[in-house]
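Deliverable D4.2, example record:
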Amino acid sequence: MNDKLKELAELMFPGIEKSVEDYEKMYPERKLEEGARVTRFAPSPTGFVHMGSLLSAFEDYKAAKDTNGVFYLRIEDTDSKRTVENGIVGILNDLKNFDIIPDEGMIDEEHSIGEYGPYIQSERKEIYHAFAKDLVLRGLAYPCFCSAEELDEIREIQELNKERIGYYGSFAKCRSLSVDEAIEKIKNGEEFTVRLKSPGDFNKKITLHDEARGDIEFPENDLDIVIIKSTDKLPTYHFAHLVDDHLMHTTHIMRGEEWIASFPIHDQLFEIFNFEKPKYVHLGVVMKIDEEGTRRKLSKRKDKEASVEFYHKEGIPKEAVKLYLMTIANSNFEEWFLENPDSDLSEFKFDFKKISASGTLFDVEKLLNISKNYFSKLTANEIYDNLLVWTKEFDEEFYNVLVNNKEYAISVFNIERGGVKPRKDYTSYRSIRNFVFYMFDDLFVSPDYGWNKITDKEEIKNILNTYVDKYMDFTDQEIWFNKIKEMCDELGYASNMKEYKKNPELFKGNVADVSGVLRIALTSLSNTPDLFLLMKLLGEVKVKERFLKCINN
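Output generated by the structure prediction step:
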């Protein structure tokens, strides 16, 4: 070993005793079955998981679970500016809300599970320093003393001469420093970063085999990138990625397409250490169509649907969100689910080759349609139980109504549920109140009647009075409807729609118009589930009370 390089390495990383080999013994190969994937979700501790991150975490989780592998959570906090208080707990809660539970990693701000930690990067500084020290000892890394001003000057020269931007070749000023010069500068207290001494040749080509996109060709990396920062001596993302994913034995790295350009750097780092390389899957950007019809990246600042907290507050079922995520994650899922509507999501096998390379369009309306279908398959009891949980947190008034009227509420939710064509109106737990409020006196307060075909107030009162006095009968649905038709004949409305269509001028209106008056007077809405079922459940006393209230309004 070169004594001068050893002296330099000791000055740069004092107190680092363990070697790369020591850490490899501490973190041996995982004992998993052949083909098992090890994936990770590695966010910054911002306390905020946006939809793009949730999609990535979901795909990582699914990829591991499909193969009886390991999905772990690693917190990348080397950028202290992005760290917020309780940021880890916020991330864990967001993942938990969608049943994405890591097998290893952080379980709160301070504790973790698993044998491959620490799972917080800032707690792994000594490990990174051991790997960086190894490079210095091998002459493959060096201290760089360039100031921010000097680096700006290099960039300005490159821009002026229309050359590639970066610290490489003749622009890598500190690369040419002798070991003695570097030692002297460090002894003099000069601040330094640690840079890779890249062995790459920009004129040579390397190939990334992306599991989703196929082969992509790049020039070899020749940049002397920073691997350890000067201020806090923490690693850059590039170097931490190498160390962590090697020691944690990550098999598949799924990340945003913005990292494709970094592949030559990462590939080179794995080559230098002669480590087994992970497989890469680069995911397209999550986009939306804005009001102008333009596609743009989903923004956590502009778009409320970008925050996963939005779905929790709205009460969009996590099961529906997961179905939608799988729909946009794999292009063949939708067809599979149509063929297997009652199958569990775990039965579908995630396929990297079915990931869209061009990006994902996030469509809230499609998500809500999936949610409608999901709600249509729930029993009334399931809706009641789930709604109780949601309202307890977000709608105290509705919660109290549900608690005090359990059996009645379940009967309300059971209207038109089941059968060949179950109702598909609920899109979220928040939306349910708007569809059932009129069935509860505590929620049905001072309704605003929006009359439809029949608008004359005296005629409306006449219909309601006549119905209450002579025709109200809930014995069964056929008798109930025949009574309404009898009333139509008495009041000059067509009880037979065919006759009305032939000679509309002979009638004041038709049975549908009269039924509409009854519906609006009872519920204040023109569109509701089956009117007979509503009346029967409310009961004669309540129906009469509602109609009289409308008459006297």
